[in-house]
Amino acid sequence: MPLGLIALAIGGFGIGLTEFVIMGLLPEVAADFGVTEAAAGWLISGYALAVVVGALGLTAATTRLPRKPVLTGLLVLFIAGNAISAVAPTYELMMTGRIIAALCHGAFFGIGSVVAAGLVAPEKAAGAIAVMFTGLTAANVLGVPFGTFLGQEFGWRSTFWAISAIGVVALVGIATLVPNLRTDGPAPSLRRELTAFRSGQVWLSLTVTVLGFGGMFGAFTYIAYTLTEVSGFASNAVPWLLVLFGGGLVVGNWIGGRLADRSIDGTLLGFISALLVVLVLFAWLAPNPVATIVLLTAMGGFGFGTVPALQSRVMRYADRAPTLASGANIAAFNLGNALGAWTGGLTIAAGLGYTSPIWVGAVITAAALVVMVIAAATARRIPRTDAAGPARLDGAPTAATAI
């Protein structure tokens, strides 16, 4: 395994940690700044919206620049944002720090996916992307519980100092271990990158990303209420149950990456179908604690197992201009998160109960499966030479070819 992939994974770990750890620290943050928990929650929503802006805006703005310096620059932005959060004397400055850190999120994973694919042989591209995203999944399993503990014991600001330190480690790792990426063919440009969006397959891939992740997060956003109010678990058991969910993310990401190297569309059709079945069973069997444990873990596995394949697919059909399309797919993940959370909240507000977000997630996932079937069927009509993959290192062949 190229050591550069490990450096990218460390960056993903830090970014995943800063995104999710604040969920466990909202009471402390709200009390420190004297705001309501609802206002503190905007530190999460504001972050997500800034991710979308950064994924598209910063990726577009840096298309002409070499990718390695862009990645290191993004990590400097990430470190600065978290340091601002750690010292912020006011809620407004804390929000500013969160937005600055979030701006690097989408661009880092979008550009990092292209770089990761370029570090390995063509047939291992999806697995390389999965390695980078392992950092994000590990942040849920290991980082969030530890970061929450650190913040509760030594103050929430200590957590953001720790995240800043992780960012420094990732910055040094990428600067020293990731080789410079050289593209074949014409020099990158925004105009060239925008040509990726002429592909119907790119738009179908982005739609599957929004719906596929929207389905999982529609169920997951309100999972604490489902676990305590429907399944009957004590509130202090919820963090440990979420560790199981995080374990499913790690395993699903690893398996999904390896299967996607064999067949991207086959992996997506299989995993989305399995996620649909899991969500229907979960909504039906949520009152059973044992079934809930199994299905919660499976939901994480099949839901996140689609990530390497989704990221690889949008890059594959981006007509040798994968960087902006890759960033757009990161934005699509976050739009899916927002879609799932919003629709799930509507059903709870309508008084349909705490299993209703899971049913909503199942409906959204079914829509994702329909779109994926259409995408796979129409892709078979595309000549293999029409879908080029991401740029390679040192003039090597492209990292992916059409299915």
Features of the shown structure:
globular; disordered C terminus
Protein described:
It contains 16 helices and no strands. It is globular and about 50 Å long. The two termini are 25 Å apart. The chain is mainly α and 403 residues long. Helix content is 77%, strand content 0%. Helix 1 runs antiparallel to helix 5 (91-118) and helix 1 runs antiparallel to helix 7 (156-177).
Rg for CA atoms: 20 Å
Give the uncertain stretches in residue-range form.
Answer: 384-403
Overall 3D form: globular
The H-and-E topology, N to C, reads as: HHHHHHHHHHHHHHHH
**Chain-averaged pLDDT:** 80
Number of strands: 0
**DSSP strand content:** under 5%
Number of helices: 16
Helix/strand structural class: mainly alpha
Q: Helical percent range?
A: over 70%
Between the first and last Cα atoms, what is the distance in angstroms? Answer: 25 Å
Q: How can the largest sheet be summarized?
A: none
List the helices and strands and how they pair.
Elements: H1 3-20, H2 26-33, H3 37-61, H4 67-87, H5 91-118, H6 125-154, H7 156-177, H8 190-194, H9 200-220, H10 223-230, H11 238-260, H12 264-285, H13 289-304, H14 307-316, H15 322-349, H16 356-379
Helix pairs in contact: 1-5, 1-6, 1-7, 2-3, 3-5, 3-15, 4-5, 4-7, 5-6, 5-15, 6-7, 6-11, 6-14, 9-14, 9-15, 9-16, 11-13, 11-14, 12-13, 12-14, 12-16, 14-15, 15-16
